[in-house]
């Protein structure tokens, strides 16, 4: 059952406020969270600086999960101080640690609430509280649990709800679509409820397709009924949703998932949404990234249902309900490929065609080429046939780059094939070949024929549905029209006064039926013929033989069958009446002067008719299953046919005469029973038994023989012997066997057939009363086969056609009429077909020898050992066995069979089976059993799975046994679950109240569950937590609910009345005196409280665990202009004592003061064109009047002044050099005034100086002078920088800086060295471009060289090739890489060739050869055996030739 959440306003155990941590007296202010759905309560109006109330940054997400799964909620909270998180539920307790576990991960700051193996009774609304001293945050989350095996409709549950008077649930509307397992048997032609559900969610353009699929042809009736149903559905939907629109049926996406969408608004956000598949509820998740198969997520108003990892079993009928009302229905069908795409080989510039045929019409397939989706365009044509079964992809103008794998996808089914594009060798070199008009590819099969066959199959299914619906409607109309049953009258034998009622027929010779085959009709005569009555299934019943031109039909009975008609006259014949099941009853034989047919029995079968005469013949009645019943043999002087029984079988017919023959009766399965051999003087056929087999017929006349009746299994029953003078047949017994008939003159009575098909004993004739049957025998065990005869006679045994004799492990015995074959120890060679023969009688049966499955003792011993794993690990079981046929392997846990799926993986191999249980939990501990079963028996082996885990927390609550000023003793109970291994000890930790640190006190043995803490201080409070420990680790802690005080509480007296030392708008300073009476307990600190004027609430400025150690305090949490009073309490180890008297009222405002400026800057440099911003901060009370001056003059109107509290700002939007000045700010109030000057300099990068001149005044000194920069007159802070460069160091270095003159004297100027100078102008904005000096100094010792008329000789660099570095010998292993190199010189550059065993390898792709500036290299990626040999390098140019060689040996 699907447990839905029941929301109440009650508070359950473990929820809401408790004694200390959740004090219900704390009433605060509602705050809004950034996360929707979070309720925040703040306890104080204004939070202290740096502190905050709790809030959720990630809230828990609602969960719908299957019973037995692992359910959890996650939340992340913030707040300062760090909040405490508590979980609770509306209708239950969460204190059971086995069912509820709260965890905290400090790394991710996640609080987790876990419910392993969730149960249906845990479905509820859960609450998460986060609280600190400044407030609390609360959020709710819903858990829905799907009970295993829940179905959409459950009759037993509904009856139970009615019995419990829970009519509300019973009266709720349920879906008309139910699971297949619970579907009632549909009546012929009944319309599937899915038809209406699909129509109500479909577009109008899809109506025709859906009607054709379900076989509905009356569109006017369909539309009328659909409109009525839509109105009812819309009224039901309006109770829960509004604006239902944009319904998109299920489709498969490109990423392999399937989804459907719809949009609506929930009237109640807490309404539950359910998903069904084929009427059965399916679990889903709302959290993205979850691993569940089904997901329902909301995007705005849109709800998107999706499922991943699609499988064929995912096909079905999907519905989305809100509460109990259906909102949307869609059908998900899987399409298969009847003909898949085939590999295509195409020439370049030719079109390639891929084509396939699918099993159901689909408007579009998804085509992919080289893993990329393909769309209709210039490159690709996507074609679909008219019936939407044949799909083609045409790749136009194929190029070599188009080769690759192409795929067609229809849902989860896909097929792929290669496209191979061959280059056009006949194309002109370097030119593009001409476009070809031919197409390559295709499936190679007649796709049109395959598609037509599939279309015919689909059309036939639709027509069958239409016919069934039509037939059902006609039957309903006829039933309504027939108000009074028709009356029938029986006809007397040999008279014409019987009332004949015409049976409604559609045709004289056939019945209008589309799904069944017409039955056989009787033999005709002359010109007359009687047609057979129509059966219920529409098949043709057998008609009796016609005669001459006349026929009398049997009268119709109340149950619809026709009574037998009397014999016709002169040319007449009576036809068989129709039975209750619609089959034709047997008609009596015709007569030249009339004949009386047998009267019909109460069950609708006719009574036996007297023997006919002349040319008459009685046809066999038709059985209920549509098979032909036996007809009595015809005769020149007449014959009586057997009457049909209630089940449609033929009753025994009397013996015929002269030349007649009786045919064999038909079996229940529609096959023909064997007829006895005919003779010159006639034969009587056996009647059909109740099970459809033929009863024994009496002996015929002259040389006649009675044929044996057919047994239930289709074998022939034995017939009695015939006689020379005739024989009377036995009457039928109640069990279907005939009574013994008296013989005649030398006659003999045949044996009657028993109900089980065996022959009853007949006097003197051998017969088998108990024959052989197929048996299974165990190898090595004895087996016995017995045949029982009705007389003492001999017989022989055969195996697979070979005679058997006693010996070789086989004994053949005979005891009177019992024959036995005993196999003492069965072997494989004993398997075969055994046959017993006695005279003309025989019986056979097959014996199969095999073994009961068995385990090897060593394997069984290993398997029986327990498997011990830790929680979270995988447990594996493996059991080998001998391979056998028809072997079934099953795994069980605690008697419940395990199925493959989820955390269970079962692998079945021919000689072993493995079981893997993933991520074991503690609850998985139990018995594991494997069972091997075959037709010969079963065998089982058991093992144990033990899952070890750390123990559960000790059982609480923690009891306080004793508390004094020096000792605290506590007591607890052992944990419920020891985790699979015994608890070894308990660890105790302690925390002093007001501290965050937990201190380990020690541990005690597992036998002791109490602890005495002797290291306590009187008056202090302590909290304790206890851990249980076993070899797997520590349990979760059990913590004391409240702090435990050592001794009794002693509080201090009140301190002195606080005094206000000073006030400002942001702070009020207080001081006080210690209490006069501290009660003998040292004072730790003080707590200060404030109360705003005209209010009654005192607010603590510090927590008790954060005492103020001094006797003065600065209160900063004040509002400017507000008045406050304060009081102080002394804090000792027992807590806060009595409060002091309140202080005098103090107003939070600044005292009057003269204006003063705070850390101003007195100089500012700005680049011309930029804005100037001068900011001056000040303090003054009352606020002063601000004035700005420029060089003691009022500022220009384009200069802006911006005044704010405590600061004034002067702004010049776009500055110029003329804005350089001294700006003065003047602040004045009633107390006084103040001035401050700021120098603002607006400048720009200077222009470079003028030309530089050099002049030597004395030896070793050079005077450097230059023309001043144009900016020198505009900028009094401009100066010059000189850099020097000489030919020795070749580096520039600064030799002069901050020069305000236009000259500089360079020292240490040496002859023979060239000097250069650069001069820069520099100001507050930076350097100018340099001015370059001429070169100073030259090499005076340089002597010009003259050629003296001698012409120079030209030098030639041409030379023949030469080897600078020869090749080296290499012996690399096979498969390794090899790098061979040499160096060659020559001018002009020689041409280098490589040879292997005198064969040039320059063009061989197995060798990578390079020549870079004379360095010749040859690289082999992987050395092969045939790479060994002599390598030679030959360098040739126009002047000569050089070569070198080496040998390469390849090692194995």
Could you tell me the radius of gyration in angstroms?
A: 56 Å
Distance between the termini: 73 Å
Task: Name the shape in a single word.
Answer: extended
Helix content: under 10%
Quote the beta fraction: 35-45%
Please give a structural write-up.
By secondary structure, the protein is mainly beta. It contains 7 helices and 88 strands. Strands 1, 2, 3, 5, 7, 10 and 11 form a 7-stranded mixed sheet that branches. The protein is extended. Mean pLDDT is 75; it is low at 1-26, 150-174, 486-763 and 1339-1345.
Any key phrases for this structure?
mainly beta, disordered N terminus, 6% helix, six-stranded antiparallel sheet, seven-stranded mixed sheet, 1452 residues
What's this model, at a glance?
The chain has seven helices and 88 strands.
Outline the secondary-structure elements.
Elements: E1 2-3, E2 29-32, E3 39-42, E4 52-58, E5 63-66, E6 71-80, E7 84-89, E8 101-105, E9 110-115, E10 124-132, E11 135-146, H1 155-163, H2 167-170, H3 193-201, H4 207-214, H5 219-237, E12 241-252, E13 258-266, E14 273-277, E15 280-281, E16 294-299, E17 302-307, E18 316-322, E19 325-332, E20 337-339, E21 344-347, E22 351-358, E23 366-369, E24 372-373, E25 380-384, E26 390-395, E27 404-410, E28 413-422, E29 439-441, H6 447-481, E30 768-770, E31 775-778, E32 783-789, E33 796-799, E34 802-803, E35 810-815, E36 818-823, E37 832-838, E38 841-850, H7 857-864, E39 867-870, E40 875-880, E41 888-893, E42 896-897, E43 904-908, E44 912-917, E45 926-934, E46 937-948, E47 955-963, E48 968-973, E49 985-992, E50 999-1005, E51 1010-1013, E52 1021-1030, E53 1033-1034, E54 1038-1039, E55 1044-1045, E56 1059-1063, E57 1068-1071, E58 1085-1092, E59 1099-1100, E60 1112-1115, E61 1123-1132, E62 1135-1139, E63 1146-1147, E64 1153-1158, E65 1163-1167, E66 1172-1181, E67 1185-1190, E68 1193-1194, E69 1200-1204, E70 1207-1212, E71 1221-1228, E72 1233-1243, E73 1252-1256, ...
């Amino acid at each position: 059952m699907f447990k839905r959440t029941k929301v109440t306003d009650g508070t359950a155990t473990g929820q809401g406020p408790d004694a200390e941590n959740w004090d219900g007296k704390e009433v605060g202010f509602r705050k809004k969270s950034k996360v929707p759905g979070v309720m925040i309560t703040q306890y104080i109006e204004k939070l202290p600086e740096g502190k905050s109330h709790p809030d959720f940054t990630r809230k828990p997400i609602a969960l719908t999960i299957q019973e037995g799964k692992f359910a959890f909620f996650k939340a992340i909270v913030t707040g300062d101080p760090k909040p405490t998180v508590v979980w609770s539920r509306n209708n239950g307790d969460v204190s059971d640690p086995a069912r509820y576990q709260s965890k905290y991960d400090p790394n991710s700051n996640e609080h987790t609430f876990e419910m392993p193996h969730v149960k249906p009774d845990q479905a509820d609304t859960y609450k998460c509280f986060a609280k600190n001293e400044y407030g609390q945050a609360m959020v709710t989350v819903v858990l829905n649990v799907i009970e295993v095996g829940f179905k959409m409709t459950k009759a037993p549950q509904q009856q139970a709800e009615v019995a419990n008077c829970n009519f509300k649930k019973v009266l709720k509307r349920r879906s008309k679509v139910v699971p297949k397992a619970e579907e009632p048997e549909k009546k012929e032609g009944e319309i599937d409820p899915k038809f209406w559900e699909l129509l109500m969610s479909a577009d109008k353009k899809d109506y025709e397709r859906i009607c054709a699929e379900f076989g509905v042809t009356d569109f006017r009736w369909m539309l009328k009924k659909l409109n009525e149903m839509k109105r009812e559905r819309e009224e039901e939907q309006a109770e829960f949703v509004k604006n239902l629109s944009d319904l998109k049926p299920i489709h498969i996406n490109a990423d392999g998932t399937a989804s459907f969408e719809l949009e609506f608004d929930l009237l109640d956000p807490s309404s539950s949404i359910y998903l069904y598949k084929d009427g059965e509820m399916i679990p889903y998740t709302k959290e993205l990234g979850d691993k569940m198969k089904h997901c329902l997520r909301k995007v705005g108003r849109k709800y998107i249902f999706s499922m991943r990892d699609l499988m064929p079993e995912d096909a079905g009928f999907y519905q989305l309900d809100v509460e109990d009302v259906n909102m949307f229905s869609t059908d998900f069908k899987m399409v298969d490929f009847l003909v898949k795409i085939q590999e295509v080989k195409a020439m370049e510039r030719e079109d390639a065609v891929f084509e396939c045929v699918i099993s159901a019409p689909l408007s579009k397939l998804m085509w992919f080429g080289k893993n990329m989706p393909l769309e209709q365009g210039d490159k690709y044509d996507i074609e679909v046939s008219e019936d939407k079964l044949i799909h083609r992809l045409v790749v136009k103008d194929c190029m070599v780059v188009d080769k690759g794998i192409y795929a067609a996808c229809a849902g989860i089914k896909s097929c792929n094939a290669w496209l191979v594009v061959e280059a056009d060798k006949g194309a002109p070199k370097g030119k593009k070949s001409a476009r070809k008009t031919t197409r390559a590819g295709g499936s190679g099969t007649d796709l049109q024929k395959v598609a037509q066959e599939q279309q015919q199959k689909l059309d036939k299914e639709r027509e069958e549905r239409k016919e069934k619906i039509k037939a059902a409607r006609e039957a309903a109309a006829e039933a309504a029209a027939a108000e009074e049953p028709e009356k029938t009258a029986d006809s007397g034998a040999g008279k014409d006064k019987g009332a004949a009622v015409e049976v409604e027929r559609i045709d004289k010779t056939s019945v209008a039926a589309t799904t069944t085959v017409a039955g056989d009709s009787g033999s005709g005569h002359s010109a007359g013929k009687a047609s057979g009555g129509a059966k219920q299934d529409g098949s043709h019943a057998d008609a009796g033989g016609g005669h001459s031109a006349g026929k009398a039909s049997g009268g119709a009975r109340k149950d619809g069958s026709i009574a037998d008609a009397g014999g016709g006259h002169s040319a007449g014949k009576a036809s068989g009446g129709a039975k209750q099941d619609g089959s034709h009853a047997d008609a009596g034989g015709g007569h030249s002067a009339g004949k009386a047919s047998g009267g019909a029995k109460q069950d609708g079968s006719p009574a036996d008719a007297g023997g006919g005469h002349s040319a008459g013949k009685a046809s066999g009645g038709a059985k209920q299953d549509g098979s032909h019943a036996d007809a009595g043999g015809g005769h020149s002087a007449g014959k009586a046919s057997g009457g049909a029984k209630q089940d449609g079988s033929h009753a025994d017919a009397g013996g015929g005469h002269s030349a007649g023959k009786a045919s064999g009766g038909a079996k229940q399965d529609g096959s023909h029973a064997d007829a006895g051999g005919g003779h010159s003087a006639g034969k009587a056929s056996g009647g059909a038994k109740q099970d459809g087999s033929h009863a024994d017929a009496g002996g015929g006349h002259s040389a006649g023989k009675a044929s044996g009746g057919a047994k239930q299994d289709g074998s022939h029953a034995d017939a009695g012997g015939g006689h020379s003078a005739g024989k009377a047949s036995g009457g039928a017994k109640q069990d279907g066997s005939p009574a013994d008939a008296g013989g005649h003159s030398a006659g003999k009575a045949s044996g009657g057939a028993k109900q089980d098909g065996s022959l009853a004993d007949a006097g003197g004739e051998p017969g088998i009363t108990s024959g052989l049957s197929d048996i299974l025998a165990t190898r090595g065990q004895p087996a016995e086969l017995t045949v029982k005869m009705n007389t003492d006679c001999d017989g022989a045994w055969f195996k697979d056609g070979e005679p058997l004799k006693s010996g070789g492990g086989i004994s053949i015995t005979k005891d009177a009429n019992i024959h036995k074959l005993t196999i003492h120890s069965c072997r494989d060679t004993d398997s075969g077909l055994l046959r017993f023969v006695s005279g003309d009688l025989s019986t056979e049966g097959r014996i199969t020898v095999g073994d009961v499955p068995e385990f090897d003792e060593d394997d069984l011993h290993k398997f029986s050992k327990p498997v011990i794993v830790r929680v979270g690990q995988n447990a594996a079981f493996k059991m080998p066995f001998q391979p056998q046929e028809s072997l079934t392997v099953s795994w069980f846990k605690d008697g419940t069979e395990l199925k493959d799926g989820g955390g269970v993986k079962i692998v079945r191999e021919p000689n072993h089976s493995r079981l893997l249980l993933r991520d074991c939990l503690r609850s998985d501990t139990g018995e594991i059993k494997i069972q091997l079963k075959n037709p010969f028996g079963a065998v089982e082996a058991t093992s144990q799975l033990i899952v070890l885990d750390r123990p559960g927390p000790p059982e609480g609550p923690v009891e306080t046994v004793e508390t004094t000023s020096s000792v605290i003793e506590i007591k607890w109970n052992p944990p419920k679950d020891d985790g699979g291994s015994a608890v070894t000890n308990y660890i105790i930790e302690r925390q002093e109240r007001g501290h965050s640190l937990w201190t380990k006190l020690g541990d005690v043995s597992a036998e002791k569950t109490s602890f005495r803490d002797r290291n306590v201080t009187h008056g202090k409070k302590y909290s304790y937590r206890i851990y249980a420990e076993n070899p797997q680790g520590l349990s979760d802690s059990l913590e004391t609910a409240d702090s435990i005080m050592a001794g009794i509480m002693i509080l201090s007296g009140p301190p002195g009345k606080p005094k206000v030392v000073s006030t400002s708008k942001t702070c009020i300073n207080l001081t006080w005196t210690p209490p006069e009476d501290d009660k003998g307990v040292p004072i730790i600190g003080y707590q200060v409280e404030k109360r705003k004027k005209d209010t009654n609430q005192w607010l603590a400025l510090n927590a008790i665990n954060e005492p103020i150690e001094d006797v003065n305090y600065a209160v900063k949490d004040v509002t400017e202009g507000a008045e406050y009073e304060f009081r102080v309490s002394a804090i000792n180890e027992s807590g806060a004592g009595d409060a002091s008297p309140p202080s005098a009222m103090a107003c939070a405002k600044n005292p009057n003061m003269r204006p003063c400026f705070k850390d101003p800057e007195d100089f500012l440099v700005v680049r011309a064109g930029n804005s100037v911003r001068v900011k001056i901060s000040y303090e003054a009370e009352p606020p002063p009047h601000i004035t700005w001056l420029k060089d003691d003059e009022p500022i220009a109107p384009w200069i802006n002044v911006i005044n704010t509290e405590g600061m004034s700002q002067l702004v010049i939007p776009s500055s110029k050099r003329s804005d350089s000045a001294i700006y003065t700010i003047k602040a004045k109030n009633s107390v006084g005034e103040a001035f401050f000057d700021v120098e603002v300099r607006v400048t720009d990068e200077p222009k470079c100086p003028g030309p530089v001149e050099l002049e030597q005044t004395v030896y070793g000194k050079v005077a450097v002078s230059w023309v001043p920069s144009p900016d020198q007159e505009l900028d009094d802070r401009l100066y010059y920088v000189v850099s020097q460069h000489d030919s020795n160091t070749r580096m520039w270095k600064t030799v002069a800086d901050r020069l305000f003159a236009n000259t500089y004297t360079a020292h240490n100027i040496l002859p023979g060295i060239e000097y250069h100078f650069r001069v820069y102008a520099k100001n507050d904005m930076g350097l100018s471009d340099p001015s370059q000096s001429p070169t100073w100094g030259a090499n005076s010792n340089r002597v010009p060289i003259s050629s003296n008329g001698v012409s120079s000789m030209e030098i030639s660099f041409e030379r023949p090739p030469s080897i600078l570095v020869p090749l080296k010998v290499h012996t690399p292993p096979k498969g390794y890489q090899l790098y061979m190199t040499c160096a060659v010189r020559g001018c002009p550059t020689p041409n280098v060739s490589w040879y292997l065993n005198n064969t040039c390898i320059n063009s061989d792709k197995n060798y990578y050869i390079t020549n870079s500036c004379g360095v010749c290299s040859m690289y082999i990626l992987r050395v092969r055996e045939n790479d060994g040999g002599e390598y030679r390098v030959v360098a040739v140019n126009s002047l000569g030739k050089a070569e070198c060689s080496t040998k390469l040996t390849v090692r194995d």
